[in-house]
Write a structure and sequence with these properties.
Helix content is about 40%, strand content about 15%. The chain is an alpha/beta fold. The structure holds uridine-5'-diphosphate.
């Protein structure tokens, strides 16, 4: 495989690069290093099968040139992280809408296989028990910038889907549910790395709202092989596939778990949503994936427990690995 990975310097993207290189593939990363970091790819520097191109997916010509020399595209570049998106709505929209259009268009023009990383955010406020891929989207007002990410990623899926059905582009859409792992930073939101950093520093753990909201965290090490396998599975083309974990926990419960696993003396501090994100923020109360379709298509079965996931982050920080500065997905 000669793969282009957009957003390859990000948290999920860099793990994908590691995986592809370890499996004998060639990889070119296109990343603007806005939230990604070169340090995430340090282990691949000098590897003849690997190249990092610093540039933006908004550069149509660059995108087309790189994809023209490849047979596979993993499109992970996006403006991500709730804090980031709320702070920079216009930039986020541009990247997530026009950038994706450029990448899909080039993949279709050059006959490359195409996978796009989407997100459980597309379900919006639908808090059903076990969201299946055909579940309704319940989004707030488009005038609230908080929803711009969900709206843009929904359109990304649609663009990919339409290219897939109309041009025959082999196209995989994965919806990642709160994926966590080493190299992920809490700088732009992302609750698990935030809590781990706070716990290790002995600082208060900032639980937003009541902490009764629930999430199901998945391991990057479970979803990367699944993403690659889906591209080898034609039955997975032109549909969206949920990928995530299976243990649900409240955010308050997560804070307690992180404190216990780190042996931290941090206290839990409740922060109002308006103090955390600004006025008018709406949180999702619950987001639980049904991963039955991924199981049916590729035998997907997440193997890492929440404790494994938290521990892998703690160990990564403790051994003094390159400081993770990245948040993607
Ligand atoms: N959250 C929190 N404290 C933080 C960061 C996030 O309580 O320091 C909450 C956030 O309000 C949400 C959950 O943790 O209910 C997951 O947030 P994240 O940004 O990781 O993902 P998403 O909101 O996209 O599920």
């Amino acid at each position: 495989m000669k793969a282009v990975v957009t957003g390859g310097a990000g948290f999920i993207g860099s793990h994908l690069c590691d995986y592809l290189i370890a499996h004998g593939h060639q990889v070119v990363v296109l990343d603007d290093l806005s939230t990604g970091s070169e340090s995430n790819l340090e282990q691949l520097r000098g590897n003849p099968a690997f190249e990092l191109v610093k540039g933006t997916i908004l550069d149509k010509r660059l995108v087309s040139d790189l994809i023209g020399e490849s047979d596979t595209v993993f499109h992970l570049a996006a403006a991500v992280g709730v804090h980031n998106i709320v702070d920079k709505p216009l930039e986020s929209l541009r990247t997530n809408l026009h950038g994706t259009e450029n990448v899909v268009e080039a993949a279709a023009a050059h006959g490359a296989r195409f996978a796009v990383a989407s997100t459980s955010e597309v379900y919006g406020k639908n808090d059903s028990d076990g969201l299946t891929e055909d579940a309704d989207r319940i989004l707030g007002s488009p005038l609230k910038s908080r929803w711009s990410y969900a709206a843009a990623k929904g359109l990304d899926e649609l663009v990919a889907y339409v290219y897939g059905t109309e041009t025959g582009l082999p196209c995989v859409i994965t919806r990642f549910f709160n994926i966590v792992g080493p190299r992920q930073t809490g700088r732009y939101g992302m609750v698990v790395p935030r809590f781990v950093s706070q716990a290790l520093a002995g600082e208060p753990i900032t639980v937003y709202g009541t902490g009764d909201q629930r999430r199901c965290f998945g391991s990057v090490f479970d979803v990367i092989p699944a993403l690659v396998r889906l591209l080898d599975t034609p039955e997975a083309y032109n549909t969206a596939v949920n990928l995530g974990g299976k243990e649900e926990i409240s955010i308050r419960g997560l804070a307690d778990r992180v404190i216990e696993l780190t042996g931290s003396s941090s206290e839990v501090r409740f922060v109002s949503y308006s103090d955390a994100y600004g006025a008018g923020y709406e949180d999702m109360q619950r987001r639980m994936p049904d991963t039955g379709l991924a199981r049916e298509l590729i035998g997907y079965e997440p193997t890492r427990t929440l404790d494994d996931i938290i521990t892998s982050l703690v160990e990564h920080r403790r051994v003094g690995a390159p400081h993770p500065r990245v948040a993607v997905g």
